[in-house]
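Postdoc handover notes: sequence design on the structure in folder B. Input tokens:
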């Protein structure tokens, strides 16, 4: 059995986000976020649940840090709840909110775990949504103000900063498809939202560089390779269109200072833009967006198989019965991770890459003692780590891997129906218990290597 040894300084981590684990909805002066409000809408969340308690990490964070110590992770990627710091969206930061993260950061550092902070993992203050949310240019200044509040407090101890998590989801799912908060369905709004996310990223990067000593700053994108369903010209064209809007709409501005021309033309054709002069782009914006980043965070879960739908635009093609799917209905396709990382490196030359999320939701039942045996999660993670290792061998500047997620949590529109955790959370008692995959991940980290033979099971 081959063993894949990782570099000495490879960063092993786990990831979470504030809205998905913290709870403590109004504790310590927190204001409502756009997701708190969205969850209250009839039918918005699959199981009718809400994120108001979630994993109660707000009160149980010490125990969670201890569990991470037990896992032996080098780093923890988490996000700051924007509305805990800026309950009304603007004005003076909420001291109790900053204190919470201050204590968390100190506990992590004391445990030898490096904090990797994400500033926006989708939970903007509801108050800002009332003023237009991401489609409004004023939100850019509000985000920078919030960034300054956080970096001026934590920048002396935290080196690694991510501005946004998956801007595609915020813009497209939130403002075009309406599956995420705030649930709008307006493609033009989505394009403006995407631009303001990118612009605020560039400006926040400046703020981070001013306030953090020796910062490492970047953005996290969810990149999805597209495979044409068939070899017809139509399906291949559909795959181009899919990637143009999903991946290149973000990568091109960030690394080349321009929106991809072909994807802009697609939007004009579909009537989402009046012309190829993007009305929301002001002079100087693209230079700000293109500011060099220290790293690119890549979230990888699956690929998309697409075929040409009406007018040739991409639609998801049905997958054959032999394709292995996760509980989310996503194809398990580890090879895609190698290809994706190699391609991004060749096309855009990021200085460093971190896999900032990768994981799997599974249907799982604990035994009588509350134990979960999840060999599928072990196999999934092992295969993706092997794929990551192959990318390293091919010269990708991959510096670390963060498993999504440390624990089962509030999976957005799916509520608590999808479990991604290495730790099982009992949502009645809020107890956490390591699954078999947690023990396997612990052994993998200790060995700094993955072998085709599942260890520790
Ligand atoms: C990603 C999100 C993360 C989690 C996983 C399953 O898109 O960043 O919060 O929901 O998917």
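Designed sequence:
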């Amino acid at each position: 059995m081959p063993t894949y040894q990782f570099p000495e300084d490879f960063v092993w981590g786990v990831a979470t986000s504030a809205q998905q684990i913290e709870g403590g909805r109004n504790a310590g002066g927190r204001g409502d976020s756009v997701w708190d409000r969205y969850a209250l809408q009839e039918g918005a969340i699959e199981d009718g649940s809400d994120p108001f308690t979630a994993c109660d990490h707000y009160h149980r964070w010490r125990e969670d840090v201890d569990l991470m110590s037990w896992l032996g992770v080098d780093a923890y990627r988490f996000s700051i709840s924007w509305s805990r710091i800026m309950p009304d969206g603007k004005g003076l930061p909420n001291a109790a909110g900053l204190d919470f993260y201050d204590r968390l950061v100190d506990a992590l550092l004391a445990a030898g775990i490096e904090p990797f902070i994400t500033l926006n993992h989708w939970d903007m203050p509801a108050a800002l949504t009332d003023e237009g949310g991401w489609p409004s240019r004023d939100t850019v200044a509000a985000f920078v103000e919030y960034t300054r509040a956080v970096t001026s407090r934590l920048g002396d101890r935290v080196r690694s900063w991510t501005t946004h998590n998956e801007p595609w989801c915020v813009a497209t799912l939130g403002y075009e498809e309406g599956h995420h908060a705030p649930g709008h369905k307006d493609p033009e709004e989505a394009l403006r939202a995407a631009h303001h996310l990118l612009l605020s990223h560039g400006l926040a990067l400046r703020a981070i560089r001013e306030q953090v000593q020796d910062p490492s700053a970047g953005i996290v994108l969810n990149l999805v390779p597209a495979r044409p369903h068939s070899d017809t010209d139509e399906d291949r064209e559909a795959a181009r269109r899919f990637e143009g809007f999903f991946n290149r709409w973000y990568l091109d501005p960030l690394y080349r200072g321009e929106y991809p021309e072909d994807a802009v033309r697609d939007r004009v054709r579909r009537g989402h833009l009046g012309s190829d002069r993007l009305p929301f782009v002001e002079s100087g914006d693209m230079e700000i967006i293109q500011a060099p980043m220290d790293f690119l965070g890549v979230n990888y879960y699956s690929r998309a198989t697409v075929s040409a739908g009406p007018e040739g635009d991409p639609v998801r093609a049905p997958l054959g019965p032999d394709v292995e799917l996760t509980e989310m209905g996503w194809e398990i396709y580890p090879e895609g991770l190698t290809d994706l990382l190699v391609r991004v490196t060749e096309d855009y030359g990021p200085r460093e890459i971190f896999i900032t999320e990768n994981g799997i939701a599974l249907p799982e039942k604990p035994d009588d003692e509350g134990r979960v045996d999840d060999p599928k999660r072990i196999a999934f993670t092992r295969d993706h780590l092997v794929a990551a290792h192959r990318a390293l061998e091919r010269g990708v500047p991959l510096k670390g891997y963060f498993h999504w997620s440390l624990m089962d949590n509030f999976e957005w529109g799916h509520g608590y129906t999808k479990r991604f955790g290495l730790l099982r959370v009992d949502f009645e008692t809020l107890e956490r218990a390591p699954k078999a995959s947690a023990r396997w991940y612990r052994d993998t980290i200790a060995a700094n290597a993955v072998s085709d033979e599942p260890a520790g099971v």
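Context for whoever picks this up: The pocket of beta-D-fucopyranose is lined by residues 17, 20, 165-166, 169, 222, 299, 357, 404, 411-412, 420 (CB under 6 Å). Don't rerun without checking with the PI first.
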